Amino acid sequence: GKILSVYPVKMTELSFYGGVETVTGSCFLLETGGLRILVDCGMFQGDERWEKLNHAPFDFDPSAIDYLILTHGHLDHTGRVPLLVKRGFRGSIICTPGTYDIAKVVLMDSARLQEEDYEHWRKILLRRGEKPVPPLYTTLDALDAIRLFNKTPRYNEPLRLNNRVTITFKDAGHILGASSVLLDIKGEGRIIFSGDIGNRNKPIIRDPWMPDGADTVIMETTYADRTHRGFEESVEELKEVINTVCRRGGNVLIPAFAVERAQDLLFVLRGLIKRQEIPTCKVYLDSPMGISVTDIMRRHPDCFDEETAGLIQRGEDPFTFPGLEVTREPEDSKKINFVKSHAIVIAGSGMCTGGRIKHHLKHNIWRKECAVVF
């Protein structure tokens, strides 16, 4: 299960421990300027073959790492950080303020889910006489990791790691706080880790930074073989679906990831309602984590693009509008099942593999007047 390749860059050595042969589990080790720097420490996601790699020993000594740099807060870039700490890492974790806030929520949620999953399978396996696999890490492990997040430079704010290595975070346009990492190494040159890069002209956050040159670029290629359609085209399609379903007297279900996708939807729906392009309807954000991330977004207006920053300056909230209801408690989520028409429900998980969207699908998917929007 070892994924490793080494690429020499002058006196710098770059090793790949994840994000190879798969787009998850991002983890790169850069040895340069007398430092051992890890860039991302993500969880492998997908089928059982990849999931097993999360439990495998690291192919490097966690206690020998000086710095961990995080490009953004998604689980496939941060998900093994508590495990890294559990296995000996005691260095500094560096990321933008936005990534710090999102990573805290993501890691605590990940630990909770692993503990719940362990308890569920423990009872079943013990009845069979089998030994359950312990959780990858616990809530306490996640808290131990969060304590090591002690450097949070803002975008374009250089941070010297020693007299040879300086790092700078640049806008990646992916999610709040997401960064491309620029490393200037004295006598060696410039290395860029792209991180996950967002599309241009997305709502809320700024477009990705365009570098003017580098000696080495480590580039993500999640959608390298795909041409994305324009954002406005997607908004137009969403508008048509909502209008059609409202005329039919049904509900619109939107499975959405809690980080970024849910907030984009709120922003878009706010605009459609304000411009009266869709009828008055009830909108439910039925995702505790999505609600938390939306609150985090409000704390980081410095990351917003001109349009969203303009709303803030005029005293408007980009993520709320008449008819919006946030449902954090399970009891409030269940009440939505009694709403039979003119409702838009945003709930996790984005791939319908778990979360509250499953019970909304159960109550609506069989109804011809309803629609599910992915």
Give a short summary of the structure.
The chain is an alpha/beta fold and 374 residues long.
Explain what you see:
There is one protein chain. Helix 4 runs antiparallel to helix 5. This protein has helices spanning 48-51, 75-78, 81-86, 97-127, 139-146, 231-248, 261-274, 288-298, 306-313, 330-335, 357-364; strands at residues 5-9, 12-18, 27-32, 35-39, 67-69, 92-94, 149-151, 159-160, 165-171, 179-185, 189-193, 216-218, 251-255, 282-286, 324-326, 343-347, 371-372. It is built from 11 helices and 17 strands. A hairpin with an 8-residue loop joins strand 2 (12-18) and strand 3 (27-32). It folds into 2 domains: 5-218, 4-Layer Sandwich (Metallo-beta-lactamase, Chain A), CATH 3.60.15; 231-372, Rossmann fold, CATH 3.40.50.10890. By secondary structure, the protein is α/β, with parallel strands linked by helices. The strands form 3 sheets. It has a 7-stranded mixed beta sheet with strand order 1-2-3-4-5-6-7, with no helix packed on it. A 5-stranded mixed beta sheet has the order 8-9-10-11-12, with no helix packed on it. The mean pLDDT is 94.
Write the layout of secondary structure elements.
Blueprint: E1 5-9, E2 12-18, E3 27-32, E4 35-39, H1 48-51, E5 67-69, H2 75-78, H3 81-86, E6 92-94, H4 97-127, H5 139-146, E7 149-151, E8 159-160, E9 165-171, E10 179-185, E11 189-193, E12 216-218, H6 231-248, E13 251-255, H7 261-274, E14 282-286, H8 288-298, H9 306-313, E15 324-326, H10 330-335, E16 343-347, H11 357-364, E17 371-372
Parallel strand pairs: 4-5, 5-6, 6-7, 11-12, 13-16, 13-17, 14-15, 14-16
Antiparallel strand pairs: 1-2, 2-3, 3-4, 8-9, 9-10, 10-11
